[in-house]
Amino acid sequence: MGITSSEKNYDYIQYGLEILLINLSKLTIIYGIAYLTKQLIPTLIVHLSYMLLRRYSFGLHSLSSFVCTITSIALFNIIPYFFKELILPTPLIFLISFFIFFSILLYSPADTENNPLVDGEKRKKLRIKSTICCIILLIMVAFVPATIKTLILLGGFYQALLILPVTYKILKRRYNNYELYE
């Protein structure tokens, strides 16, 4: 007996709800910690900067929800705590900005084993969108106070790292997974 269309739809909806609940629980933990440690604004700035780029550039995912949660606490709660008052010198701001821009320009979108980006046209559109988002992010950096610059660049830096081929290699993950389907 084959699986019917309604069974596939049910499985699809169930999977989507599970992902939603998992992500809401992670966000609750991350922002709960941020609230309790009075780091809500720094966490929000870093996270939004990261997500602006991540939306179209994709990149590595943790292999488990637990590892993702622990990594997210480190990236969005702990590290911003130490960087929130840091004022970067202008040459370093330019250097980090160039690193983020060229990483996004050259390596986005980066797929995963579970989500290969097989459609070449879709990859091209995602690269354009992620580059536009990157430009917007870096323009914002030019107009915000120094401490906020640091937090925005931190979020962008995280995302740039997560799409680099060398990061995939270090973590022993397959890169350009779409090539297996060509």
What's the shape? globular
Q: Please report which band the strand proportion falls in: under 5%, 5-15%, 15-25%, 25-35%, 35-45% or over 45%.
A: under 5%
Q: Report how far the terminal alpha carbons are from each other.
A: 31 Å
Q: What is the gyration radius calculated from CA atoms? A: 18 Å
- The tally of strands reads 0
Helix and strand composition category: mainly alpha
Written description of the protein model:
- With 182 residues, the protein is an all-alpha fold.
- The chain has one domain (5-181).
- It contains 7 helices and no strands.
- The chain has helices at residues 5-36, 40-57, 65-83, 90-107, 120-143, 146-161, 165-170.
- α2 (40-57) crosses α3, α3 (65-83) runs antiparallel to α6 and α4 packs antiparallel against α5 (120-143).
- It is globular, with a radius of gyration of 18 Å.
- The chain starts with a helix and ends in a 12-residue tail after the last helix.
What's a quick, concise take on this entry?
Helices cover 73% and strands 0% of the residues. With 182 residues, the chain is mainly α.
SSE diagram, text form:
Blueprint lengths: L4 H32 L3 H18 L7 H19 L6 H18 L12 H24 L2 H16 L3 H6 L12
List keywords for this structure.
182 residues; mainly alpha; 7 helices; 73% helix; cell membrane; AgrB
